[in-house]
Design a protein that fits this description.
This protein is α/β, with parallel strands linked by helices. Helices cover 39% and strands 20% of the residues.
């Protein structure tokens, strides 16, 4: 099936970016501001990922969303803009410095009232949430060693047919490099294999940016 895969040249990637509806000067300014952080700016999601998250949340009619790993706010703004009227997004992060940029841009983007930002370890924030299947949509893009912990805490509170999206599941191609045995790579591989085999969900991995794993919670009694 390799003939079904189109490799992206820089020119083809620019073409991809040109064919999305989102044309937001606030997000463009956020990309520029995040770029001032130097190498850390690589943690910001790609523009096409942001547009995709908005579209997913909007298609689902999501009202309750969770994000683990907010950084400077690009993904949070993207998700918040896709929420149904009255929708709320809980953002989990540990950095006051980076999320200070996010708070500024939440206001500029007009979504500050839809977002609650908690500065604390993500697992602690998630464990403190009420029990019950109330979350519609979640995006996980934080420390890789905790991906599975975030997954379990969110899945327990995700409604049937709710969606969890993981970022960086290709990890720059390292997931298929047997010579790479660092902790983050091993954690991503383990997460990918675990979710794929998990009978509670169905999933698909798509090669958007550094790879997204889309995971839908099955309804009770649903056949695999």
């Amino acid at each position: 099936m390799l003939d079904k895969f189109t490799k992206l040249s820089p020119e083809l990637y620019e073409y991809v970016l040109a064919h999305r509806s989102e044309r937001d000067p606030v997000l463009a300014a956020l990309i520029e501001e995040t770029g001032k952080l130097g190498g850390w700016s690589m943690m910001q999601i790609a523009p096409e990922q942001g547009a995709f998250l908005t579209l997913l949340a909007r298609i689902m009619g999501a009202k309750s969303a969770v994000e683990v790993g907010t950084f400077t706010g690009y993904s949070a703004i993207s998700i918040a803009r896709g929420l149904a009227p009255g929708g709320k997004l809980l953002c989990c992060d540990v950095s006051e410095e980076w999320t200070a940029i996010a708070r500024d841009f939440f206001a500029r983007a007009g979504v500050a009232e839809r977002i609650e930002l908690e500065i604390a370890p993500g697992v602690d924030t998630l464990k403190a949430l009420p029990k019950g299947e109330t979350i519609d949509f979640a995006f996980i893009d934080a420390d890789k060693g905790n991906y599975k912990n975030y997954y379990e805490e969110i899945l327990a509170r995700l409604r049937p047919n709710g969606l969890i999206v993981f970022d960086n599941v290709l990890w720059g191609g390292s997931v298929v490099d047997d010579a790479n045995q660092n902790d983050d790579t091993l954690a991503i591989r383990a997460l990918n294999d675990f979710v794929t085999a998990d009978s509670r969900v169905e999933c698909v991995m798509i090669p958007v940016a550094d790879g997204l794993l889309l995971t839908r919670k099955r309804a009770p009694g649903e056949q695999r």
